[in-house]
## 1
Amino acid sequence: MKPKISIIGGTDGLGKWFARYLKNKGFDVIVSGRDIEKGKNVEKELGVKFTNNNIKAAQEGDVVIIAVPINVTERVIKEVAPHVKEGSLLMDITSIKEIPAKTMEKYAKKGVVVIPTHPMFGPSTPSLLRQVVILTPSEEHKKSEWFKKVYNFLKEEGAKVIIIPPDKHDRIMGIVQGLTHYAFISLGATLKELNVDIKESRKFASPIYELMISIIGRIIGQNPYLYADIQMFNPKISEIHETFIDQCQKISEIVKNKDREAFVKIMKEASKHFGSEAKRGAYYSDKAVFALTSEIENLNKLIGKEIAVKNINSNKIHFGILKSIDDDYLTLEKNGNEQKFNILRVDVFSGEELEKLKRKHLKRKHIDISILFKRDVDENIILKLLKDLFDIDIVDIYEGKNIEKGYKSITFRIYGYNKKELKDKEEEFLRIIKNIGGKERFSKIKKLKN
Amino acid sequence: MKPKISIIGGTDGLGKWFARYLKNKGFDVIVSGRDIEKGKNVEKELGVKFTNNNIKAAQEGDVVIIAVPINVTERVIKEVAPHVKEGSLLMDITSIKEIPAKTMEKYAKKGVVVIPTHPMFGPSTPSLLRQVVILTPSEEHKKSEWFKKVYNFLKEEGAKVIIIPPDKHDRIMGIVQGLTHYAFISLGATLKELNVDIKESRKFASPIYELMISIIGRIIGQNPYLYADIQMFNPKISEIHETFIDQCQKISEIVKNKDREAFVKIMKEASKHFGSEAKRGAYYSDKAVFALTSEIENLNKLIGKEIAVKNINSNKIHFGILKSIDDDYLTLEKNGNEQKFNILRVDVFSGEELEKLKRKHLKRKHIDISILFKRDVDENIILKLLKDLFDIDIVDIYEGKNIEKGYKSITFRIYGYNKKELKDKEEEFLRIIKNIGGKERFSKIKKLKN
């Protein structure tokens, strides 16, 4: 039988994400949370069980997952860990690991397996496929059956699993998340303090400044409480902050003293430390920059042509003629109406991709045309030749009564999106047909309202 | 007559770039520099005149452009500016503007027009098209004929021209270049100081950390002397450094005190200052990240298929079967030999683009096949139908002797890259032809050695 899974704080964020994911995988899932109304809604939405009693949820689970915000994780572990059944598995999914690992080990009963976990993704991720999940169990728990089960489950779901001790995790995350957030938030605060007009400054921008501004914008727009906690609950962060401030001060001093050689030495040493990663960085950022500029250049080539515009968030698709591009916006014209779209928020389709989308999303009309061909003609070869020029199928083949001897009637169906287009296609089709040995029998246009 | 242009320091870097560009535009160009051997080579390479006497170059030019490194710009201006002819134009192309502007105004004779200039691009740029060029003339010189000429020239070349006072330029550049370089060099030094294994750290990386690492790698790999000078010669840089260090210290203190609300306030205020630019940043960085991950996903789909790989630097093209992808490398197989390419250093082509490249770069073989069609058949329509399935042309049309009455002979030429491929194509071609009213006359394969 599949284990029963209790998710403490499963009514929100990544906890809710796991509740849905595991429920869909066929597990029996209980979620707990303080807010009864929200809990009832999640119960209905996901088809899981809800309780507002964390301890009860902890008592019932074969697997108990702590999924509360970082700042209350320690308190909630102390509250529920002693109630987890012997033989059960206790996990947390916080972005820091040293504190939760120690607290779970200390407060869980003997016989409870502890696997502190850090899923390196947010609740907008569709599945575990290719996502990084970090596990930081003790040497003892690493040998447990539960660990094997968790590991195998994650691997089967396509996740990239990394196993390291909790303190090493926090040091690396102190860099990967902590230093990154810290530096960009500080940059954002600096630009505010210096009262820099961001939009204006982009006029002068190198692609790298543009990238930096984007990352700052991205980070300062996130949930500030989560970002505060990622800084505040990482025991390694002070050392990292201090080292960064030291380096900033050192370089600032060097610049003040116009000590060129000292400045050059710092850059060279950093570059040496990076080794081949410095070159990789140049290549990688080139690609990122190039991807963005070439998107705009490709768009410019499409002005005056038909395109489809798909909103990245809503997935809604719009068809029309690309009229113009200015700044971050493109203008689409359809039946004389103009609509503006933020280029950064849409995917643009043209050519073959546009045709595919039209077939999928627009109502096609069609015309049927019957053509006489000699009996020994292979209609599949004819169709193959025509497929490149027309959206076309064969809907009927007929020999016998009313058909000249030695001939067969092949009825082609040509699709289009309006009457004018179909008329043009019909003409072109007949012109081709008479050059490849076909004779028109009769044609009729169907569904031609517009 | 076109003005004579003297470029002081025109044997290297952006000075040499302008020498080439202006020479190609038909100007009479003199370059000066200290290194006689280098100068002689540039003279030969670009077809310009060289002198190792800066003063002489300055005396001769109708336009004199100072293009020496930042750290010697002031000294060279003092040396040459007094020798620029009355009625001439004096410019510099340094990344800082306050010091050169003041020095040029002070040392140039009355009657010399001064236009301090900052071209926002490097010598790897192909042309002025879409490049940003900043001009920082005084109000007086802004009214001059020379200014109109320069402005119009840049506009005609497709550059984006920005006109601002030199001190405002230095402040904005202190942000756009100065703060950006400073922050990323400090980050690089920090990662070195903390002895972070960069490659290892990327395993844990979020896309944003990956971007940050790339930008650091890119910046610390540049010419450190140029980067030192950009910091050291900008009069606004101290204030910017200090503000940044203050913000870092303030946030570090807040984190140490676990003052969540203060942290949240800083993020929110920065976000408010960014306004709609915060969201734009999120969108823009999304696109950058997506462009990179989707490139890898698209590559994965091409495994086992024929592709072309073009080296971004050398433009050399390789054809082969994509065997595998690991880390940053792809393996290409050709005639049993395998070759590895850094994915970040190549563009990959498949499908239609691959076909275009093959036609351009590989030696095509061909086969000619003569087919009898009725006289009234339009061979252009037949060719159009076949073009999608074959690399094909019509090379001869013949009626008369030896040809059945009422018929004409159309000779098609089908191209391919080897004998086997051509044989297959011939078979397919004949199968099609007999279904569309054609009769084989004769065929011959040419250039079939392999």
## 2
Amino acid sequence: MTNETIMHQLNHRTIRAFKPTNLSAEQLNTLYSVASHTPTSMFMQQMSIMHITDPDKRAAIREISKQPYVGANGDLFIFLVDLYRNQQIRQQKGKDDGRLHTADIFFQGLDDAIMAAQNVITAAESMGLGVVPLGSIKNDPQKIIEVLNLPKMTFPVLGLQIGVPDQEPQLKPRLPLKFIAFNNNYPKEIKFSDLSDYDQEVTTYYDLRDTNQRSDSFTNQIAGAKLERHYTKRDEIMKILHQQGLCTDEGID
Amino acid sequence: MTNETIMHQLNHRTIRAFKPTNLSAEQLNTLYSVASHTPTSMFMQQMSIMHITDPDKRAAIREISKQPYVGANGDLFIFLVDLYRNQQIRQQKGKDDGRLHTADIFFQGLDDAIMAAQNVITAAESMGLGVVPLGSIKNDPQKIIEVLNLPKMTFPVLGLQIGVPDQEPQLKPRLPLKFIAFNNNYPKEIKFSDLSDYDQEVTTYYDLRDTNQRSDSFTNQIAGAKLERHYTKRDEIMKILHQQGLCTDEGID
């Protein structure tokens, strides 16, 4: 069972090298329109998108993400949880901030922003473009807010670099479906011996990949450095969220 | 600039009434495959999907969501942030939980789950199916965890009800792009007089809608009841997240 859309979705791969061209105004407009038509929690439309073309800002964001392709070829977008807009609307109507500082409403804005980002990825890929999602913009939450000069009640949650692909990476193998999709009951007893075939598949993928950075199985990666405890400014995220006025309020008892 | 995929994305509307049929095994498999090929932060694959067919569980979830269409016609799915799987992998490899309890890693799992949900929405709509996203499963975070009998290190973040549409609602007008997409600088000075045309558009949409529940402008909705302070179990979300062992750890200073 497939069609043009699903074929693209099943063939998703991260593109990190782009040709030295930029999106047209028409392409930009299409991607923004797709973002705006994404489902939005309680119809509150609590997300915004920033398109970063300024070379200094691009360099500053690359510095935060520590990935050389960020702000290199291609177009750079930052998706924001945006409760500032609705705060302004309420203020101009003489209302207090109501529930805007609750964790609940923050998470609703987060859903809006992340769903819009995924919708934009799908749209871009359907146009023959490539995308790399940039969780790395949160490597220094305080710094990215300063670089973007964001007001309180906003928070940058995900970057996307989008452009014309200049590489053809292989499809990265994903966990077998029986490990991620369950009927009625969550399987607390996971047989990890079943993961050995998948581990082998992942190792083979890295062996074949052109730019070979890792060559480790899935379970070794999970047991390895990326989940080890270490110092990182990424752990300032709750502090900076609170500083932005977000997720500070536990509601009414 | 459009194609089949983008046409569907721009025509997204929430479907709340479905015909009394269920998805085929092939359709299910396609939707799960699309979910599994969604971008995943640091390749950690920290989301899972539950397909709820059990009538008692469906009734219990409908009770939580307080929406009559939840668990009625159509197929019901719950998307989880799932750090349990990786915790089990680490334990079976003799490792401690490492960074799994940090806010950072929780948010990465949340991105995984929400992006997968949006990808499934797009795939379902491309197949001619309709979808309603169910943020309402979080109306009682403790209760939904009990109903699904979830282990610690998991959290249900979004439901989707998917089926063959039995209604043709109109397209709901979204904020004009100039209010959500910005070049380099976030516009802190928003002219809300510019929103009056959009407010009128939203009011007209409600006037024309068949099942007319609201007939209020966008800014009146934002200034109105849904963002007013009131008691709701939704505000237990951080407490229940912590109870699940998620987002408890501020990392290493």
